[in-house]
């Protein structure tokens, strides 16, 4: 188990994270006195990342709204929200 200062934790987190992965546990010190213990969590099982596709979106909308059209037009809502940044659309 290694030690690391609280200043290093604040200013050099990527290095602290690497040390933590290598050592498993670190003692955090302030003024040479231990104040906390930092331990690594067990690695979580990685889930495959799903990509957004138009087909997936269409299935989700059908599941939510069925055969009814949604009571809003998301294109109009987005255009209104973006109008102040991009100006009116032609």
Oligomerization state of this entry?
Answer: single chain
Number of strands: 3
Order of helices and strands: EHHEEHH
- Runs in which pLDDT lies below 50 for 5 or more consecutive residues are none
Strand order of the largest sheet: 1-2-3
Q: Helix and strand layout, with pairings?
A:
Elements: E1 2-5, H1 6-11, H2 13-23, E2 25-30, E3 33-39, H3 54-65, H4 74-86
Parallel strand pairs: 1-2
Antiparallel strand pairs: 2-3
Provide a quick synopsis of the model:
Helices cover 47% and strands 19% of the residues. The chain has helices spanning 6-11, 13-23, 54-65, 74-86; strands at residues 2-5, 25-30, 33-39.
Detailed description of the structure:
- A three-stranded mixed beta sheet has the order 1-2-3.
- The mean pLDDT is 88.
- The relative contact order is 0.10.
- 47% of the residues lie in helices and 19% in strands.
- The protein is elongated and about 65 Å long.
- The protein has helices spanning 6-11, 13-23, 54-65, 74-86, and strands at 2-5, 25-30, 33-39.
- Strand 2 and strand 3 (33-39) form a beta hairpin.
- It has four helices and three strands.
- By secondary structure, it is an alpha+beta fold.
Features:
90 residues, alpha+beta, 3-stranded mixed sheet, elongated
């Amino acid at each position: 188990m290694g030690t690391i200062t609280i200043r290093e934790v604040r200013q050099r987190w990527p290095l602290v994270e690497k040390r933590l992965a290598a050592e498993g546990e670190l003692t955090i010190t302030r003024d040479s006195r231990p104040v906390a213990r930092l331990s690594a969590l067990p690695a979580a099982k990685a889930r495959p990342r799903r990509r957004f596709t138009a087909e997936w979106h269409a299935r989700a909308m059908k599941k939510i709204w069925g055969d009814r059209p949604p009571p809003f037009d998301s294109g109009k809502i987005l255009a209104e929200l973006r109008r102040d940044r991009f100006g009116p659309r032609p």
